[in-house]
Amino acid sequence: MSTNDPKKTVEEEELIDIDSPEALEDPEDDERLQKLIAERDDLRDKFMRALADAENARKRSERDRREAEQYGGSKLARDLLPVFDNMKRAVQSISDEGREEHKAVIEGVELTMRELLNVFRKHGIEPISPQVGERFDPQQHEAMFEAPLPGTRAGEIIQVEADGFMLHDRLLRPARVGVSSMPSS
């Protein structure tokens, strides 16, 4: 029976003891052994690649899951920022005389703003609140305008229009500021 007969089982085939001196005397056996070794090496390579692909897919899905958990609500958070801004502007626009007259309403709006900030913090959103006189940081601030203001240096914040916000380690929205363009003397 030929060695290439597909009906032949492993038990029926003559096994080669590669350690014996006469094992590879037959050139056909040597060729068959080389083919088997090449096939084994090819299958081992495919197996190792499949194992690496599976591990990479597991790591990628874990990273995607973490990112979705941390940053999945960023669109909703971005949409809520103008609500916070409007509430802050409403409180800031009330005169001292109006504060006494509308004290309860102002307190309600301020409490709502604090609660909104608490919810933001609970979900990893932190405000960026620059102060007048600080240096402009392009990583966290957006310059809405530049103006020469005596008594300041170029690049100093001269007005804060809106707070910025970070979502964990990502910028959700830069703080909107005015910057001094005073030339150095």
From TrEMBL:
PROSITE patterns: GRPE. It comes from the Bacteria. SUPFAM superfamilies: Coiled-coil domain of nucleotide exchange factor GrpE (SSF58014), Head domain of nucleotide exchange factor GrpE (SSF51064). Residues 11-31 have a biased composition (Acidic residues). InterPro entries: GrpE, GrpE_CC, GrpE_head. Transmembrane segments: none annotated. Residues 1-10 have a biased composition (Basic and acidic residues). Keywords: Chaperone, Coiled coil, Cytoplasm, Stress response. GO terms for biological process: protein folding. Residues 33-71 form a coiled coil. Signal peptide: none annotated. It holds the Pfam family GrpE. GO terms for cellular component: cytoplasm. Residues 1-31 are annotated as: Disordered. GO terms for molecular function: adenyl-nucleotide exchange factor activity; protein homodimerization activity; protein-folding chaperone binding; unfolded protein binding. It is found in: Cytoplasm. Homodimer. HAMAP family: GrpE. Belongs to the GrpE family. Participates actively in the response to hyperosmotic and heat shock by preventing the aggregation of stress-denatured proteins, in association with DnaK and GrpE. It is the nucleotide exchange factor for DnaK and may function as a thermosensor. Unfolded proteins bind initially to DnaJ; upon interaction with the DnaJ-bound protein, DnaK hydrolyzes its bound ATP, resulting in the formation of a stable complex. GrpE releases ADP from DnaK; ATP binding to DnaK triggers the release of the substrate protein, thus completing the reaction cycle. This is Protein GrpE. It comes from Silicimonas algicola. The lineage of its organism: Bacteria, Pseudomonadati, Pseudomonadota, Alphaproteobacteria, Rhodobacterales. The gene is grpE.
